[in-house]
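The passage that follows is intended for readers who have already worked through the single-chain material. We present the inputs for a multi-component assembly, then the predicted structure in tokenized form, and finally a short commentary. You are encouraged to pause after the input and sketch how you expect the pieces to fit together before reading on.
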Amino acid sequence: MSARDRILAKLRAADTSTSPGAPDVTGWFAGHRQVESSADKAARFSRLIELAHAEVHPVTRANWLQKLWEVLAAREIRRLLVAPGTGHGRRALGELPQSGVECKVYDREIEQWKAEMFHHIPAALTGARAAVAETGTLILWPDEHEPRLMSLVPPVHIVLLDAGRIYNTFFEAMQSEGWKDGMPTNALLISGPSKTADIQVTLAYGAHGPKELVVLLIGEEA
Amino acid sequence: MSEHTINFMPSEGFRARAKDVVDNPFLRQSFRGAMDFLINKRITQFPDPEELESLRTLGEHIRQYNLGKLPELLVRLEETLTRNGVRVHWAETPDEANDIILGICKSHQAKLMIKGKSMVSEEIELNHAAEAAGIGALESDMGEYIVQLAGEKPSHIIMPAIHKTKEEIATLFHEKVPGVDYTDNVDELIQIGRRVLREKFLVADIGLSGVNFAVAETGTLCLVENEGNGRLSTTAPPVHIAITGIEKIVEKLEHVPPLLSLLTRSATGQNISTYFNMISGPRKPGEKDGPTEVHLVLLDNGRSQAYADEQLRKTLQCIRCGACMNHCPVYTRIGGHAYGTTYPGPIGKIISPHMLGLEATRTMATASSLCGACGEVCPVRIPIPDLLMRLRE
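Having made your guess, compare it with the prediction:
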């Protein structure tokens, strides 16, 4: 018998007749989490992610690129990693270079430029799929256009979020979008810049991931 | 303290180690301060007692429901992960788990394995096994990195280096990290760790991680963390190996949000961790990063023995938040190392016997005032005091 079969045989020999039936997770959320208006969700999301040390800038579809430029200029960042396969990436690529920001594109497999990614990319721009108001959380599904390391390795991560995509809870997000029927290779919840309290419970930012997280929040009215 | 490395006969010397700590005012102050901090942060996350109690009841229900179907769910998880392209391995013992992991390393001629935080990898003493096989195993969680540099073991499952002062860490970095001057500024110390470990993430052949929840219906491995080292360990190297105890499984994705909420609020008083990383497979054709190979090692190591007993099965409900240690008057006074086991504190006292044997852990059950605090804060309602009473008998 293999280790697998021996483990399963031991588990199957146990009497589990007293185990409870399926839990009612939907019922719990219905009874314990409020459904908020779009404005309240955006306000809660912003307040909580700012508490976690992220920066949130309300923008419109017309002016987000200007704000992005200001965010970069304030930090004297002249190089930005963008995804040319996305609408926002193309806009950045089309307009930022003339304002003095070089746009680097993630167009090859990481093996071909890993050291450059780790040493020479000060910031990256990605979109967010959605967000969660309850915890001040961004939801990202990295894909072939915006690969996983884009939101992880550069010290500054700038995220474009449509305020209309904010859910009340993580549970509501996964239920509404039917995540169980098709998960991506990697799904991420991001709720602030990287941090640690491992030395004397003293909070320090920029442990291994981005030191700064900047959210450009596109309002619904725009 | 040389006692830190003793791990095989935990109860041997327990009283002597405990006395050493009790007589050390600096260590006592470190633990008292840190535990008070964590207790207070947890309280602020649970302002509504009804919400807390009903969520604990839901958490207990979810864990018991899933444990009731454990063998079926393990088979289903294996199917979904395999379909997603993840290779699944089974290990009854720590030695088998190490053999599997090191076998994967050798098949890739790996020289360096970089590790996200994993208590199960501590449980199997993976770092020793890797070094014996000539493979470097480097911890990347800041607390784990610090205790590894010091040649020690974690003293807390969530905050591994909580027993150390920043001055001790400053001296350690100055002595052990080439080119580093003494600084006890915490931000500077963290940036030193970041700089050193980034270069290792860049070149590591293997990334190793634990698992907080494994979802059977989708074949998804979930990881909770704040630093980003867990994401780097599972994304930057070409191969990712995850290891988990067989109990960490849930049937449905919808079981995850309540457990995640209970875990981060109970552990560190955060409404959510900075990162929640859900991995459902290796890099797909067309994707530009992520590991090209993902493995999952399912470890038994005594868990099936606990499973056979209806009462001890409740120990497998544990989601490893550490709240029981933070609230334990004994843990707070003696710290994690005195226990001599991978998992210290109240939960350690009830899960170590099925990993190490009752004989080796005999004195541990006596290290309790039976005040009941551990049972009251447990987010999944494990009746720890009742189980301690039974172990004493």
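Commentary: Chain A touches chain B through 80 residues (CB under 8 Å). The radius of gyration of chain A is 21 Å. How closely did your sketch match?
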